[in-house]
Amino acid sequence: MAIMQGETTRIVLAGKGASRRPRRPRTAGGWLVLTGKLLAGIIFIVAALFPLAWMIIAGFKSKTEVIQTPFQFFPEVWKWENYAQIIADPTFALTMGWTFLGAVLFTVLSLTVNSLAAYAFARLDFRFKRTMWVIVITTMFIPGMTILLTSFIVVTRLSMLDTLAVLVIPGAASAASVFFIRQFYLNIPASLEEAAMLDGCGRFGIFVRIFLPLSKPPFVVMGITAFLAYWNSYVWPIMTITSPERFVVQQYLATFRSERSTELGLLMAGSVLAAAPVVILFLIFQRQIIGNIKMAGLK
Fold first, then answer.
1. Judging by beta carbons within 10 Å of its beta carbon (0-12, 13-18, 19+), is residue 221 exposed, middle or buried?
2. pLDDT level of residue 4 (50, 70, 90 thresholds)
3. CA torsion, ordered 83, 246, 98, 114, to nearest 10 deg
4. What is the 3-class SS of the chain, one letter each residue?
5. Percentage of residues of the chain with pLDDT beyond 70
6. Where do the structural domains in the chain lie, given as residue ranges?
7. Greater confidence, 144 or 28?
8. What is the CATH number of domain 102-242+276-298?
9. For residue 104, which of 211, 223, 186, 207 has the smallest C-alpha distance?
């Protein structure tokens, strides 16, 4: 028996050793391919970060250095007062605060409306469900520019012009967000709903107590998408907002460029500060975004 156990142990150890294949040394061709990939990655990173780096450094330049020829990446004299001046501007601070408030409200409203619609299409049975779903999906293929005029007429008749509501409400419902969240809800086990119903929980209670706590992955992606869409909006605000105190940040920068076109260093500093919340938001949620993309790829 001891001999048999010894033989068995040697066979198992041999099998484990066989499963570990020795790493082959890289050949000259392998090192060449690896070097090419590293160079391509470095070139891509530099090309992607160069505009942002130039904009940040241009904020330290004088009025004429930004567009001077020949091109000079770094300024001769670093003008720190550009950033100090734009931060001290009360109009810019008001615009940033107003835009941030609108972006938060728009994100919350968008997630609320679209998640409720996604739950209805994923879990509820009602008449004309398939027909309504086809209609919802069809709106994804309609360019937003084609309905600007009709949307403007609607908000004009509703007396919503020059208000925060005209920036937040019209674009809250999104077929793409409904589709994305619905696909996530379809993968939640039905047994959770059945158990909640046995405990006397209604449909809305199931949505609030079960689906919402599990909705962090799609909410992160769709929430950031909604926030960026509002923060970077320009065409719709210039059509519906006329009061300077209600300008969004992109309107403010466009107005600044037209009225003070010679102060390009100050404009670059304002552009950097306007882009900062978006960059910070991405840095905070980058792990969740990458993780959700991987999860979507596996599904």
1. buried
2. very low
3. -130
4. CHHHHHHHHHHHHHHHHHHCCCCCCCCHHHHHHHHHHHHHHHHHHHHHHHHHHHHHHHCCCCCCCCCCCCCCCCCCCCCCHHHHHHHHCHHHHHHHHHHHHHHHHHHHHHHHHHHHHHHHHHHCCCCCHHHHHHHHHHHHHCCHHHHHHHHHHHHHHCCCCCCCHHHHCCCCCCHHHHHHHHHHHHCCCHHHHHHHHHCCCCHHHHHHHHHCCCCHHHHHHHHHHHHHHHHCCCHHHHHHCCCHHHCCHHHHHHHHHHHCCCCHHHHHHHHHHHHHHHHHHHHHHHHHHHHHHHHHHHC
5. 87
6. 102-242+276-298
7. 144
8. 1.10.3720.10
9. 223
State yes or no: cis peptide before 70, omega within 30 of 0. yes
Number of other CB atoms surrounding residue 73 within 10 Å: 9
Output the six-digit token pair for 128: 């004309």
Residue with tokens 């409200």: 105
Question: What token pair was written down for 93?
Answer: 């601070």
Question: What tokens appear for 78 in the block?
Answer: 């670093």
pLDDT digits (tens, 9 = 90+) for 154-173: 999 999 999 999 999 998 99
> For the segment 51-110, what is each residue's pLDDT rounded down to a tens digit?
888 888 888 888 777 777 777 778 888 888 888 888 888 999 999 999 999 999 999 999
Q: For the packed helices 175-186 and 216-231, what is the interaxial angle rounded to 10 degrees?
A: 170
Q: Indicate whether 281 pLDDT > 70.
A: yes
Task: Name residues whose C-beta falls within 8 Å of residue 54's C-beta, 6 or more positions apart in sequence.
Answer: 73
Q: Which of 31 and 235 is assigned the larger pLDDT?
A: 235
Selection from 230, 213, 208 nearest residue 110 by Cα: 230
Higher pLDDT, 106 or 199: 106
